[in-house]
Amino acid sequence: MAAKASRAAFGEALLDLGARDERIVTLDADLSKSTMTVHFAKKYPQRAFNLGIAESNMIGIGAGLALTGRIPFACSFACFIVGRFETIRISVAYTNANLKLVGTHSGIAIGEDGYSQMGLEDIACIRSLPNIGIVQPADEIETKQAIAYAVEHQGPLYLRLTRQNLEPVCPPDYHFQYGRWLVLRRGHDVSLIASGGTVFNCVEAAKRLEADGISAEVINAACIKPLDEELLVQSAGKTGHVVTVEDHAVVGGLGGAVAELLADVLPTPIKRLGVHGFGESGDPKGLYAKHGLDPAGIAASVKKFLHR
Amino acid sequence: MAEVRLASIARECRVQILRMLAHAGSGHPGGSLSVIDILTTLYFGRLRYDAKRPDWPERDRVVLSKGHAVPALYAVLAKAGYFPEKQLITLRKLGSPLQGHPDRTALPGIEAATGSLGQGLSISLGLALGLKLAGLKSRVYCVLGDGEIQEGQVWEAAMSGPKLGQPEHALDNLVVILDYNKIQLDNFVKKVLDVEPVSAKWQSFGWPVIEIDGHDIGQISKALDQAEATPGGPTFIVAHTVKGKGVSFMENDPEWHGKAPKPAEAIKAIREVLGITEGAWDDYLKTDSSTLEIVNELSALEKK
Questions:
Q1: Are B87 and B48 in contact (CB under 8 A)?
Q2: CB of B113 within 8 Å of any CB in chain A?
Q3: Shortest CA distance to A162 belongs to which of A295, A284, A25?
Q4: Average pLDDT for consecutive 10-residue bins of chain B (304 residues)?
Q5: pLDDT at A71
Q6: B206 at the A interface (CB within 8 A)?
Q7: What is the C-alpha separation between B240 and B38, in angstroms, rounded?
Q8: Active-site residue numbers of A?
Q9: What CATH class has A182-305?
Q10: Residue A21 CB: number of other CB atoms within 10 A?
Q11: CB B198 within 8 A of CB B241
């Protein structure tokens, strides 16, 4: 299977699901060519609504549509979705509207467009709201399954997608389960917990670490809210060292969620890798290297963390 | 006559608003009293609903976007049978479904959480569009505050409303009513951030606009008829109202935006709402046992 952006897999999944379920509608704020709902809009023009560059109104309309039994996907860049936090807080979360918020172009991996277009605080903000779940798939298979799941899920969800292509990481027989994580590689020295665009790099980092005699367990944490507490505790208990790796601000994201949970139930040494400060323009590979999110950077951080 | 009946219900609702706010010790009387004639006309002269089946898909929807006026909505919902009137005095108390601002998940009959201003019109557009897509004839009524329309999201929705769903799902099932009481929390609207020319603004965004006296039930009904007969999109009604309407010491005073009456003040306000002079009050109470009960309850509260 070739590498594919999760936004592209999302666009394809919607086309299939839209044929089977009349209730699905898409909402966009003049970014449908980027969020990839453009394909759905072409095939089902009656069920696709481009609301212009007005994201708050888009999210509110989505909440209203959901309250009448439609299943709306309200889509924009992750930063512009979470930028309308107050509307998400009241019209979606508190109202408990069955709306699916889709934030594409997450992280520094969008590269050249620079910080203002990078979703870097979306998980931190949305994670603080009751009722909304957060899912970040790591490859095409997982994205398509997560989108299919989102249609069935009762209640608001936030789906965090990438602009960049993602290498396949999940097995062909993979079955997405809400609130469950997947062990991609077993190990006993350290638990590498990643999500979305950093999962593949963790697999690669684990191979490097193995060559240096370090056995890393790699976990794909597709579901960021709720966390897979059972798997987290089991893995952290086994390895005694946890490293989280994400293309999101190092504050409040997956790493923050994991640290909070472990602090409560199983205090474990933890190292959080993520984006420090604002992002900036640049090539995605260079940006990942700068922030230590490439395989070499992840491996180096793990060794330092383990004093090896 | 229908208008006499509606006016009588509105009076009873005003009494309940004052009663529940005095019990709560906080809340927003001014905007509740300005909007109550509108809500009364909707719930008892217009809407299709079944209080026993609050989730009935074919019901009409009301979104009180100016959520701080929710005491008015609670008074109307209780009168409509969604919950017992005695529950009104749990307003704002710990564990009550009658939250200080509307909570959809807590109380059947509330269509959306509001009170964070500027969001209700977008939700209403979504409701109206969703009902059209589902092929239902239900209608949506959105009530905005005048201070509220200073919020930017309102104007995103204003720009969107007349175009949304066109042509086959045009939102002719949506009516937006502005409770134009001219006062917001800090001061008079024109002193904080003037919203004039309000009708011209909405017209320029493509909305047919009807201006009425928002305390004249005949005018409210007629405007709702006119809106229903207007094809091709939603209608905007500018309802000129008086903040604190019916209570002399509350009317047109920004101080009463967000201050609850003390029990003795509530009793005086109830007397005024019912149109009884001070001299005739004791004799009147002998003829109105339900009001007497409320007055006794408030007197007891005063002594606490």
A1: no
A2: yes
A3: A284
A4: 94 98 98 98 98 98 98 98 97 98 98 97 98 98 98 98 97 98 97 98 98 98 98 98 98 96 98 97 97 97 86
A5: 98
A6: no
A7: 11
A8: 55
A9: alpha beta
A10: 12
A11: no
Q: Are strands A165-166 and A4-5 parallel, antiparallel or unpaired?
A: antiparallel
pLDDT attached to residue A308? 82
What is the pTM assigned to this prediction? 0.97
CB atoms within 10 A of CB A229: 15
- Number of residues that this document lists for chain B: 304
Q: Could you tell me if B64 lies within 8 Å of chain A, comparing CB atoms?
A: no
Distance from CA of A26 to the nearest CA of B (A): 12
**Has residue B157 been placed in a domain?**
yes
With both helix axes pointing from N to C terminus, report the angle between B120-133 and A55-67 in degrees, rounded to the nearest 10.
Answer: 50
Q: Which residues of B touch A57 (CB under 8 A)?
A: 122, 125, 153, 156-157, 160
- Cβ-contact A58, A74 below 8 angstroms: yes
SS3 state of residue B179: strand
Please report the pLDDT score of residue A1 as a whole number: 79
Residue B180 burial (CB count, 10 A): 25
**Helix ranges restricted to H, chain B:** 2-24, 29-45, 70-80, 120-133, 152-160, 189-193, 198-204, 217-228, 263-273, 281-287, 289-303
- The CATH number given to whatever domain includes residue B223 is 3.40.50.970
* Nearest CA-CA distance, residue B156 and chain A, Å: 6
Q: Is residue B45 part of a domain?
A: yes
Mutate to test the interface with B, among A53, A68, A85 (most CBs of B within 10 A): A68
Q: What is the pLDDT of residue B304?
A: 79
Q: Measure CA A39 to chain center.
A: 22
What does A22-79 look like in DSSP terms, one character per residue? Answer: TTEEEEESS-HHHHTTHHHHHH-GGGEEE--S-HHHHHHHHHHHHHTT-EEEEEEEHH
Q: Give the residue extent of every domain in chain A.
A: 4-166, 182-305
CA dihedral A249, A253, A259, A264 (to 10 degrees): 140
Contacts of B206 (CB under 8 A, 6+ apart): B161, B162, B163, B233
CATH hierarchy code of domain A4-166: 3.40.50.970
pLDDT of the residue at A115: 97
Structure tokens that stand for B61 in this block:
């929807």
Phi, psi angles (nearest 5°) of residue A159: -110, 125
What token pair was written down for A179? 């609130």
Dump pLDDT digits (tens) for A87-126: 999 999 999 999 999 999 999 999 999 999 999 999 999 9
Instruction: Report, as ranges of residue numbers, the positions in chain A whose pLDDT lies below 70.
Output: none
A288 to chain B, any CB pair closer than 8 A? The answer is: no
Separation of alpha carbons A35 and A76, rounded Å: 6
Alpha helix locations (H) across B46-89?
70-80
Query: Does the CA dihedral A280-A281-A283-A284 come out positive or negative?
Result: positive
Residue B282 lies in a domain: no
Looking at this protein, which amino acid is placed at residue B157?
A
- Residue B303, pLDDT score: 85
Q: Please tell me the distance from the alpha carbon of residue A65 to that of residue A79, in angstroms, as a whole number.
A: 23
